Inverse folding.
């Protein structure tokens, strides 16, 4: 093998082959990444830092330019200053950072104004290779402006010679009706191959590892079913509250914000059948089949709650959800939810899938936990605990199995122990890429495997009606308000 380092074009070409079924591209090598909403928090904290990391590591095509668009009157220097705390720049990278921002430009304009988008298109065409460049549009915007922005992109900013791709941030609608309306609107403007609905959890290392664990190991195949699995628990916990984002959160709630996207996507990966291949369509076909087998959640299988302050706590721990000045007074929005789902197919019939998520809880954790059935014919006097397989998504990525082993020493008694693969111990010198790095790189390469397809959005009724229950239950004071749910 040659020891000559690959150029950035060659690196990107190899990634593109791996992620896009080795298809050959014939369009221009020039790419223009347009950040709609460049003045916002998402752009500042996630999008610009991610683009910088990809550029720094030589993972983007060599001829890539970045254009920010927002209503604010900004400059590239102002964007750089705002983003700097999140870029993680070392002293040796100052020159490369300057090179990155030299490829950045900014245009201000209104989201509903056609003339502003015509001006944006003129600017894109003026960039080196802009007339033939591939264009990627990232909608780092509130969903309320999606309609105007996407319509204006379609009418005024589409490339006529390269390809066009649009990245849409969740939530994909507030309920089933608005989700369908948004999907219909996007489909009237773009093909499904041009739309990338991003759920950053699908870019996390351990979420992506679920497929390899399941389908790359012989030992799990025979036991990954209702005969051996007693229950599956999917957990998402945050130790902090709304922290001034109460206005946004109160409009959507924990179910829309976490459960029906992050947790439901992980459930699909745990429960789906083996796809025919690792191609985007084959994987997403199997995920849809799982969702078709889940019936709407019944009222008796749901617990909702809202955190309150701890009088003996310190700092923010003293504050409850309603103490946040950005939360409407008397809000009945749920900040904690547990729901039990059942997948009615041959593999999983009768196995409860328990989805738990909440804010202001006792720790930060996201994990998938498979608890196996009891060992039949126990000969150890009920000392054996159930085996578990745990995939910890965050923090401290890990895969570990809880199992019984003989306690060391002269006594013949079992104790619970772990087979532990903690990434920071096993892969000490490996830097795990940020979820947004993986997903934005996927968009450049044309891989939709880790993005949400429209057909997946056709099945939210299993959870969307929980928000109606929330209003009814809270109005009659029958929902438990909780603090620090374990």
């Amino acid at each position: 093998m040659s020891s000559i380092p690959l150029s950035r074009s060659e690196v990107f070409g190899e990634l593109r082959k791996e992620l896009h079924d080795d298809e050959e591209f014939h369009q221009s090598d020039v790419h223009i990444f347009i950040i709609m909403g460049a003045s916002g928090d998402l752009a500042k904290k996630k999008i610009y830092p991610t683009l910088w990391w990809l550029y720094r590591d030589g993972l983007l095509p060599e001829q890539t330019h970045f254009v920010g668009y927002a209503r604010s009157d900004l400059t590239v220097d102002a964007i750089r200053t705002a983003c700097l705390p999140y870029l993680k720049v070392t002293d040796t990278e100052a020159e490369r950072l300057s090179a990155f921002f030299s490829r950045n430009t900014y245009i201000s304009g209104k989201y509903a104004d056609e003339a502003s988008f015509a001006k944006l298109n003129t600017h894109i065409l003026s960039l080196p290779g802009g007339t033939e460049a591939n264009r990627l549009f990232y909608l780092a915007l509130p969903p309320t402006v999606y309609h105007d922005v996407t319509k204006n992109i379609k009418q005024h900013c589409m490339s006529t010679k390269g390809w066009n791709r649009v990245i849409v941030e969740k939530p994909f609608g507030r309920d089933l009706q608005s989700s369908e309306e948004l999907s219909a609107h996007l489909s009237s403007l773009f093909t499904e191959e041009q739309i990338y609905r991003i759920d950053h959890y699908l870019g996390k290392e351990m979420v992506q590892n679920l497929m390899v664990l399941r389908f790359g190991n012989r030992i799990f195949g025979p036991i990954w079913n209702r005969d051996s699995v007693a229950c599956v628990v999917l957990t998402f916990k945050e130790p902090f509250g709304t922290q001034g984002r109460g206005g946004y959160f109160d409009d959507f709630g924990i179910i829309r914000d976490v459960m029906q996207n992050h947790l439901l996507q992980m459930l699909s990966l745990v429960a789906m059948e083996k796809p025919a291949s690792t191609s985007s369509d084959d994987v997403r076909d199997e995920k849809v089949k799982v969702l078709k087998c889940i019936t709407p959640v019944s009222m008796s299988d749901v617990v909702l709650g809202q955190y309150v302050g701890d009088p003996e706590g310190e700092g923010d721990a003293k504050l409850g959800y309603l103490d946040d000045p950005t939360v409407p007074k008397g809000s009945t929005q749920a900040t904690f939810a547990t729901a039990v789902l059942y997948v009615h197919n041959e593999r999983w019939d009768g196995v409860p899938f328990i989805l738990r998520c909440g804010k202001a809880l006792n720790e930060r954790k996201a994990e998938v936990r498979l608890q196996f059935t009891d060992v039949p014919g126990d000969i150890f006097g009920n000392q054996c605990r159930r085996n578990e397989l745990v995939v910890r998504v965050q923090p401290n990525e890990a895969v570990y199995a809880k199992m019984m082993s003989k306690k060391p020493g002269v006594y013949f008694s079992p104790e619970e122990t772990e087979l532990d693969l903690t990434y920071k111990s096993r892969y000490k010198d490996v830097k795990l890429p940020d979820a947004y790095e993986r997903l934005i790189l996927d968009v450049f390469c044309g891989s939709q495997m880790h993005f949400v397809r429209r057909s997946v959005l056709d099945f939210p009724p299993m959870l969307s009606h929980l928000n109606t229950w929330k209003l009814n239950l809270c109005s009659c004071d029958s929902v438990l308000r909780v603090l620090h749910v374990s």
